[in-house]
Design goal:
Arc Repressor Mutant, subunit A; 0% strand; mainly alpha; 8 helices; 2 domains
Length: 154
């Protein structure tokens, strides 16, 4: 039998998850309607029917919300760029992107384009660096060892 503490934690977790989902849904609606630059934290919170302090319990700010909302799809795309085998996750992300293409288009225009592209590039670099390390071809390792050799000869 579950104790009262476990039950309260489960209820709280569901509430936190529901609030986060409402904030993200509000964010998506507002981005589609106004564009990223014309949406404020106050607008997002009001659209989710929560206060700004509740917003800040979940996100550091609007850019953090954007980053977290695209993190999973970008991670899947980055992983696909670093492998020759397409994954089931990639297919799911592509279907999601197609179904939400109006939002994707909105996120790839204006100031958000640089944020999203930079986040994707960072994730791809991370995957490629991991692959290089695993295969023994870590470019940062080669650079540092060649630099040490050139110092000895100086």
């Amino acid at each position: 039998m579950r104790d009262a503490t476990t039950h309260r934690r489960d209820v709280r977790d569901r509430r936190v998850s529901r609030t986060r989902s409402m904030l993200l849904a509000s964010f998506d609606r507002l981005i589609l309607a106004r564009g990223y630059d014309d949406v404020s934290v106050r607008d997002i919170a009001a659209g989710a029917d929560v206060g700004r302090s509740t917003f800040y319990e979940h996100f550091e700010g609007k850019d953090d919300m954007l980053g977290q909302s695209v993190a999973r799809p970008l991670a899947v795309l980055a992983a696909a760029a670093a492998t020759s085998e397409p994954s089931e996750s990639l297919e799911e992300i592509l279907i999601h992107v197609h179904a939400n293409r109006a939002l994707v288009n909105a996120l790839l225009q204006g100031s958000t384009r640089a944020i999203v592209v930079s986040a994707l590039a960072s994730k791809v670099e991370g995957h490629l660096a991991t692959i290089a390390r695993r295969s023994g071809n870590d470019p940062s390792h080669r650079w540092s060892s060649s630099r040490r050799r050139s110092r000895k000869h100086s």
